[in-house]
Structure formats: structure tokens, C-alpha cells
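Structure ticket #2291
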Amino acid sequence: MKILVLNGSPRPKGNTAEMVSVFQDSAEKAGHEVVVINVCRKNIGGCLACEYCHDRSNGECFQHDDMQEIYGELRDTNMLVLASPIYYHGISGQLKCVIDRFYSALYPKAPESLQKVAMFLSSGDPDMYDGARFSYEGDFLGYLGLEDIGLITNHDPDHLEAVRKMAETL
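Resolution: structure written out below.
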């Protein structure tokens, strides 16, 4: 299975990066192909709401920035993992820009290959996950109808072991 992990944390050695690393190592040992993109290191602008992708092109975004790399990976990805620290009750702004730009690639539906989704979240406060969870459930499980592989936070008991088991049992 091909798995695309979008890491929305700017901290290369933080809690989110640790969860991503454990997932990548375990999934690759289980025989999966894992592509990790650190979106905070990319030049990705927000959606312009210009409708170019739906009015004048075949789902291609007007903006030509580093999002093109993610669009390329999405075409044959089987599973998407969204990983982010919590900023103001939601995912990081850098990852939010990527998700908003999914409009051209995933609307009105995701590519046939994309079937599964998971989310990793980290926060200093165990009660700050509701905004990110709402987006995950509404956008990815509800709207796109992807199979829920799980949402793991750094406050879950044995969260790194849970990430490892998730990757090993895909």
C-alpha cells in the first residue's frame, strides 16, 4: 500500500515528528511504501477560491507552487495520514493550507486509489483536539467517505505503541 503522510509541524524533533517517524518505520517494515512530506518546509499558498480548477481546467490548480508535489503523490496514494500539532484548537496553518488546496484534487471526490485516512495530533493540553477532530470526521470520513484507520493523540495512553500497531496492522 502507498501511504502519504503530511506532517504539519514545523518542529523537526517534536511530538508530531516522533509519531510520524514511528509510523513510517513500522509501516515500511510491514512492506508499505511511505512518502512523508513536511508541509512546513514547502512553499504552499492558500486556496484563492478562483474556481479555475473547476471552471477552466480539469481539476488543476491555477497556482504552481510546491503543492504540485502533493497533487502528484495523491494520484496513486491508498492512504493519507494527516499529522499536526494543535494551534488555536485546530491543525497548523501550513497543513490547513494544504487541505484547503485539496479542493482541486479531491472535489467532487477523491481518486479511486485513496481509500483510508488517519490522523496524529499533539498538544500541550489534552482538551484541545475537538476542532481538528471535527475537520477529520467531517471532511475525510464524512464528505470523502474514507475508511477511518484512527486518530491518535500524544495524550492517548501508550500513543507511540498505538501508532506502531496501527502501521503494523494495515
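Closing remark: The chain is about 40% helix and 20% strand.
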